[in-house]
Amino acid sequence: MLRLILNVIWLVLCGWWMAILYFLAGLIAFILIITIPFGIAAWRIGAYVLWPFGRQIEIRRDAGLGSLIGNIIWIILIGWWLALGHLVSGVALCLTIIGIPLGLASFKIIPISIMPLGVRITPGRSF
Question: pLDDT value at position 106?
């Protein structure tokens, strides 16, 4: 029940607009064709950003050099903007006592917003 409450509050306060940013980044990546893997990753993270509590991020140990190179390109073009959005929203959420768990969740999304390739989102604890 707590996860549901946190997810609804998250969705209202910052989840919907952060998800829109991810979906727009993915759409741009799909239009450019060669960056389709970035679009898939952006939409995967966008779905996670809509409803993060009750799920966790796991690093895929079998991700290879392609993921590393892709993540470097992602950081330069898109990742740092999305990470900045999570940082700003996390700080804003932490200004209230009720928002602290939401702000911490926003901070925990920063690593995947910077390096989306080579990770997976699984059911589990989110904090």
Answer: 92
